[in-house]
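User:
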Amino acid sequence: MKTNTNEAEKSVENGKNRTQTVHKTVHTSVSIPFPAPADTSDEADETTARAGKDSQAYWKSRVQPRIVRGKPTPELYARFFEGTRQAWVCLNTSNRGLAATKARDLYLQIKANGLDAALAEFRPKSAPRAARSGTVGEVIAAAKTVSSVRPSTFNQYEISLRRLAAGVLGMKAEGAVFYHRSPEAKAWRAKVEGVSLDALTAAKVEAWRKAYVAAAPDEIARISAKNTSSAIIRNARGFFTPEFSKKIAGMVRLPDPLPLEGISAGCSTRRFKTTVEPRALYAAALAELAGDSLTAFLLCITAGLRKGEADMLDWSNVDLDGALVHVAPTKYFLPKTEESQRSTPIPPDVVAHLRAVRAKDTAAEFVLAGLDPTKKREVKVYRCACWRALTVWLRGKGFSSLNPIHELRKLSGSLVNAVAGLEAARRHLGHRNVATTAASYVTGSAALVNLAAPVANSASS
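Assistant: Predicted structure:
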């Protein structure tokens, strides 16, 4: 229904009979009069004159056009009162009978529900709008001021929220957008951060996830798409947990319900499978790798270190006499979780290798050579150059995953699981619970069920 923005409310009356007063438009300070009420002299129909306000006949003689620039408007208007307030309402029709019906119905609504409620229903565009929710950029900026999570974790939340908002609105990232310093990337990021949080409704997010998975070309790709979409939703939700939302509520307006509320992130388990024979891989590494590439390989496959843990491993956390590698906080490094802080034994040949590395540079602070850790960088960057060469070598040995370095850690956990069990593998890898270890980090066949084998004779009691 069309809303006339020149409609106005006034809190004045002209005598007991509430005769018409001047109506001032909100667009000009010039008083614009309405024509006088319809003629109620002896020429007027007696039935109309005596009609009640709840009848069409009463309003038929009272709806009238407005005079604008000396000319009557095509639309008819009616005036309504509530206490000392009055409102002129455009009825959006030039048909007197239809206008009278609308005026009568609106009068009854005012009588039942009050002037504000009746006008809000009659002309919804002029009803007070709900305050606009904040944007993706606003919630990220607010969160940075109060967040206590690790910078790397916050970075994942931030990337996931942008990616989800872009996906919901169909904003594709292509070309130079993937280079974070490019003008295209900055423009794309600004566009995504301008998206209102109101867009992240359950229906829209579920529609995006369904389309994202459906776009995968085959079943293997669909499994990967399901895992990826689940991880994106789970990370983006980090901004909207009840505890975190309370912290930023005073800095950015959050919609109700909160974004992503009621959406199941689903399971993103990638069960570990490998076709690589670990002993053959180990022998090939000793024969073909050298320098930091070999050192990094040994730390990951024998100590089960994460890439970041090996990248920032300080010599003070290597106990060569005790044959232990400690994952602990340093002035440059904080382990992923409290459970990640652990001491892992290393075999004699790795101890000997590390002694030789240490002897070459006794002044080195880190086991692996790399960039200065004190220099701040815009994005997460690993210190050591050896990771790229090691990745290339592993792909040549049959590793096809996106992160073959992490596969070494999983292979290490699987070896511990085979020898000492799942709980030992959990401690070796530094997981919070065995469910994580069992779901994604260890492999191995189930027990053999061989019903054709002869039954061993047991001693009689």
